[in-house]
Automatic annotation (TrEMBL):
Topology in the lipid bilayer: Multi-pass membrane protein
Keywords on record: Membrane, Transmembrane, Transmembrane helix
Gene3D superfamilies: MFS general substrate transporter like domains
Localization: Membrane
Membrane-spanning segments: 12-31, 43-63, 75-93, 99-120, 132-153, 159-180, 192-216, 222-245, 266-284, 290-311, 323-343, 355-375
GO molecular function, one term: transmembrane transporter activity
Gene Ontology CC entries for this record: membrane
Protein name (Swiss-Prot/TrEMBL): MFS transporter
Domain Major facilitator superfamily (MFS) profile: 9-379
Stored Pfam families: MFS_1
Domain of life of the organism encoding this protein: Bacteria
Main location (coarse class): membrane
InterPro entries given in the database record: MFS, MFS_dom, MFS_trans_sf, MFS_Transporter
């Protein structure tokens, strides 16, 4: 059995995804406290939060270069430790400039581990000879649930923000230390060019990844307003749709590896995106809340395994080094989350939120139309996983 196909290595990869999801989710409940502590308005807060995105994007681009040369293990460890060590500082930053700098560091840690763990995951999956990527991404979602729930619980117990973050940081440190010796020492480090402009199939993968993440971001930021504006739910109940969407996403990813192993990447992309489009149609034509909730459910299930497949295809393309390709599509996906929801807002202001959501469905149609092209890789067929060779 190769080192990449050991159960301990798969555990370490899952822990990396768990830490990344947990870390970013721990910050979200702290935002109102940071705003009150610094006494800033929404505009200044928005600029401060932009620092997190800038740090993430810059780190993602650099991580692709560093992973191509040195492998993903040291970057995963640095990112996990960075999240754990910087999180408590977010709870005590006493000025806008300080918080901006700390958010920049926090974003850099998040961006680094995000790219590196996906590079590591594609190597582990390749060695296993069967789909694992959906399960890895499910751990990110579970980490997000756990982080936000635990931080909210601790804050509700009237513990100080610093104490809450220290507890969460200890948990991240423990998980990172457990993963440390079990991660692959290197992942086919590249000795050639350290930077290659995204091109060819990688550009298509990046576009599709941006679209899929845009849909996820829009469901978070605009889903509640859509159903409230349609008179289907009250303001107090508006978040129910995103809860259903999130549960469907997580459940879909937990079962996604078995689905991909059975039907292949092409069918997963085609039918998954088509199911999401049907979900949009159900949501946008619903006249009662229960039907709208089924729309959220279908969108979540349909979109759940698209990103894991796109990351897998980044590992099998031949036009770029794997690390640089994964960094490119990760950065594109993050841009979709950061910029996309704002774009939805501009469209909604011009022609209405329902029309903006129909446009999201149309964008998802690009995934459907591109499924065969994405899966037509000379190194891997639509039924991708043959029995692995053992050392």
């Amino acid at each position: 059995m190769s080192s990449a196909d050991r159960p301990a290595t798969r555990l370490a990869t899952r822990l990396a995804f768990l830490v990344a999801g947990f870390g970013i989710a721990c910050w979200a409940p702290l935002v109102p406290f940071a705003k009150a502590r610094l006494a800033v308005d929404d505009g200044i807060l928005g600029l401060l939060l932009l620092s997190l995105g800038i740090g993430s994007v810059v780190a993602m681009l650099l991580t692709g270069v560093m992973s191509a040369r040195y492998g993903s293990k040291p970057i995963i460890i640095a990112g996990g430790l960075g999240l754990a060590l910087v999180l408590p500082v977010l709870a005590i930053a006493s000025s806008p400039v300080t918080l901006a700098l700390v958010l920049l560091a926090f974003g850099a840690a998040l961006g680094s581990i995000d790219v590196a763990m996906n590079i590591h995951a594609v190597e582990v999956e390749r060695a296993a000879g069967r789909p694992l990527m959906s399960g890895f991404h499910a751990l990110f979602s579970i980490g997000g649930f756990a982080g936000s729930a635990l931080m909210t619980l601790l804050l509700s117990l009237h513990l100080g923000a610093l104490a809450c973050t220290l507890i969460c940081s200890v948990l991240m440190l423990i998980a990172t230390l457990i993963a440390w010796p079990r991660l692959l020492r290197s992942t086919k480090a590249q000795q050639g060019l350290l930077f290659v402009l995204p091109h060819g199939s990688v550009l298509l993968l990046a576009l599709l990844c941006a679209i899929t993440f845009l849909v996820e971001g829009a469901m978070l930021d605009w889903g509640a307003l859509l159903v409230i504006g349609a008179g289907l739910l009250s303001e107090a109940q508006g978040g129910a749709g995103y809860i259903v969407f999130s549960i469907a996403m997580t459940a879909g990813r937990l079962g996604g590896d078995a689905v991909v192993a059975r039907v292949g990447d092409h069918a997963t992309l085609f039918w998954g995106s088509l199911l999401a489009i049907v979900g949009f149609a159900v949501l946008l034509t619903a006249s009662v809340a229960a039907v709208a909730m089924s729309g959220f459910l279908l969108i979540g299930l349909g979109a759940s395994n698209l990103v894991p497949v796109l990351f897998r295809r980044a590992a099998t393309q031949t036009v770029m080094p794997t690390g640089l390709a994964v960094a490119a599509i990760t950065t594109a996906g993050y841009a979709g989350i950061l910029i996309g929801p704002a774009g939805v807002g501009f469209v909604a202001r011009a022609v209405g939120l329902p029309v903006a959501f129909w446009l999201l469905a149309a964008l998802m149609g690009l995934v459907t139309l591109s499924a065969r092209i994405v899966a037509a890789n000379p190194r891997q067929t639509a039924q991708p996983f043959s029995p692995p060779q053992r050392d």
